[in-house]
Each structure stands twice: as C-alpha cells, then as structure tokens.
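ok, trying the design again with the full structure, not the truncated one.
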C-alpha cells in the first residue's frame, strides 16, 4: 500500500505587508529586499488569530478537497515552530477541537522549516502499516509574533500562513516513492527562537545551498529517478538565491521550482503545503506528475520526499 495526498487546503491572512512598509521603520529598501531575497510582500495574521486558527482554516479546505469530513480523520499532525502556547498544549489538540474531529491522537512535530516533510513521513508510516487511514498533516505558522521588528536581518524575511493535506492510501502507481530525512544539532545556534527569532543569515544560507541539493539527490536515488524525470520541485523557500544556486548545482532549470516566496515570504513549515496548493490551483501540478519536495531549516534539519501526484 502506498501513502499519498488526497486533498490540499491553505489559509493566508488577509493583511498584506509590503517591503515599502519596512522602509519607514528600518534601514532597508524595497529594492534591497527584492534583489537579495526575492521577497516582495508577506501576509501578517491579525491579533485575534493564532497559529491554530490558521491551521484549522487550512484543514477545513483540505477535508473538503479530499471529500471527507473531520469525523473521518484518524490522526492530526501539526508541523510548527510558533505554537499558540509555549510548551503545551499542542496546536494539533486545538485544531482537533476547532474542526470538531473525533477524540483522535493529535500532536505537534518540531522540525522547523523541514517540519512538513517530517510530518508527511510520519503519516506515511501509519498509513502504510494500516494503523490509520486518513491523516491530517498541517504546516502552520504565525511567525510574526516571534519576530524582532527592529532587526532588519530577520524581520523582512518571514510571513504567516498555513497549508494542510489529507493523507491516505492511494493506488500503487501514485503516492510517496522515497524520503530522505536528516539533522545536525551542532547548528542549533544558527537559527532559533527563544523570545524572538535569531538567525546567523550567512551560515544558514551556506547550509541551505549545501544541503538542499544533496537531499534532492538522495531522495531521487532512493526512488530510482533521474532528475530530468521530475516535473516539479516544491522547495522550502527562504531566499530565491538559495533556490537558484541549488538548481544550478543540480543542473535543473529554476523554472522547475515552485516559487511563492515573492508573495508570502518564508512561512516556515507552511511554505511547502502553500506552494502545493498554488501549483494545483494554477493547473501546473497534475495527476501522474513526478514531484520532489524538499525542506531545510532550524535544528539544523532537512528532508525530502519523492512522490507521484494523484490518488
Ligand atoms: N536591508 C539592507 N541591508 C541589510 C538587510 C536589509 N533588510 N539585511 C541585512 N543587510 C545587510 C547586512 O547587515 C550586511 O551589512 P554589513 O556588510 O554592513 O554587515 C549586508 O546587508 C550584507 O549581509 P549578508 O548577510 O552578506 O547579506 P546577504 O545578501 O547574504 O542577505 C540574508 C542576507 C539574511 C537575506 C541571507 O543571508 C539569507 O537569506 N540567509 C538565509 C536565510 C534563511 O535561509 N533562513 C531561514 C532558513 S529556513
């Protein structure tokens, strides 16, 4: 039995914050931000919405797209680094209540911007062993509440949002072919949240450019794939220059990489499911397509999945 994606949902806060809005407060410019990161604007959640609200909204759309109800879900996994409560309870428990799921297991998973990939791999194990049928996997972040708005090195880079997928059994010619996960905790201090998010941008940049292509190569090898057989790469997006350098290293045209960073910035664990949703809506992602998704982030962590899109 193969595990795959049965439905996809997303939620983006209405409020748009442009690069120009930083020019008033910080020593930066719209031109610098676009040239050095590729980001033009980001979404910021209102004060009455926390991560679980973004997550629940994305989940309801994913359920509808999968053609099931909350009562059909057997497990909820939320990848997040910006939970409503510090410590506990988990966002997943809040989502269980908000979407009116049964009293099923619900837990958060902490692997930063690789979190959505990690969560999908966890879901795959439960599905392929027949333990659970429908697993709700969510990447949701209200990063804005953890930003130091006086720090031009980090404040401009992030945004809020949520994406969700329903995973379940799919036909043998679809679904997840292989995965690659890894971590290196010696890099913990390069990117972390205590009260606020702190980052050593240059070191994280070097790590991303090194690790992203490696992970893509590993996952492709495990699936027995040549990179030219891949229709679409859905990467975590922190900086468009990271994607360009990774594409160059792999000898793949950058047009094959999904980009939503220009409008939503880095939404941490939500970036990959938000990009999946956009590619579906635009019609670029179709049943039978060969897809590689890749995430990297704090920990340091990384992860990739190769899958054939469709049920
Ligand atoms: N506006 C104007 N100047 C800025 C700036 C901003 N918003 N942010 C940083 N700078 C400055 C720096 O202070 C530095 O100035 P200095 O030379 O006087 O010290 C200068 O730009 C160049 O710094 P550098 O770090 O080399 O910039 P960069 O072009 O590499 O871009 C980042 C900085 C943060 C955009 C880039 O390092 C990056 O994207 N890092 C990885 C981020 C990431 O992947 N994060 C999340 C992983 S999940």
């Amino acid at each position: 039995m193969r595990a795959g994606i049965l439905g996809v949902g997303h939620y983006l806060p209405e409020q748009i914050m442009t690069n120009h809005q930083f020019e008033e407060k910080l020593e930066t410019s719209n031109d610098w931000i676009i040239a050095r990161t590729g980001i033009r604007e980001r979404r910021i959640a209102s004060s009455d919405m926390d991560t679980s609200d973004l997550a629940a909204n994305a989940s309801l759309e994913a359920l509808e797209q999968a053609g099931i109800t909350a009562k059909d879900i057997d497990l909820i996994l939320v990848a997040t680094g910006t939970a409503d409560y510090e410590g506990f309870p988990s966002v997943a428990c809040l989502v269980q209540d908000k979407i009116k799921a049964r009293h099923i297991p619900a837990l958060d998973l902490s692997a930063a911007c690789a979190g959505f990939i990690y969560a999908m791999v966890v879901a795959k194990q439960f599905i392929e062993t027949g333990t659970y049928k429908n697993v709700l996997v969510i990447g949701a972040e209200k990063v804005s509440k953890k930003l130091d708005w006086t720090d031009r090195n980090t404040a401009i880079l992030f945004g809020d949002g949520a994406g969700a997928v329903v995973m379940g059994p799919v036909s043998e010619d679809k679904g997840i072919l292989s995965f690659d996960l890894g971590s290196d905790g010696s890099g913990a201090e390069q990117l972390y949240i205590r009260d606020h998010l702190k980052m050593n941008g240059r070191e994280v940049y070097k790590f991303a450019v090194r690790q992203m292509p490696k992970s893509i190569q590993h996952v492709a090898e495990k699936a027995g794939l040549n990179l030219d057989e891949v229709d679409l790469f859905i990467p975590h997006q922190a900086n468009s220059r990271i994607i360009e350098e990774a594409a160059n290293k792999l000898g793949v045209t950058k047009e094959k990489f999904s980009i939503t960073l220009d409008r939503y910035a880095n939404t941490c664990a939500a970036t990959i499911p938000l990009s999946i949703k956009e590619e579906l809506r635009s019609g670029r992602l179709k049943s039978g397509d060969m897809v590689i998704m890749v995430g990297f982030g704090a920990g340091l962590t990384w992860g990739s999945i190769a899958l054939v899109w469709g049920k």
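Keeping the full-length input from now on. The chain has two domains: 3-169, 175-309.
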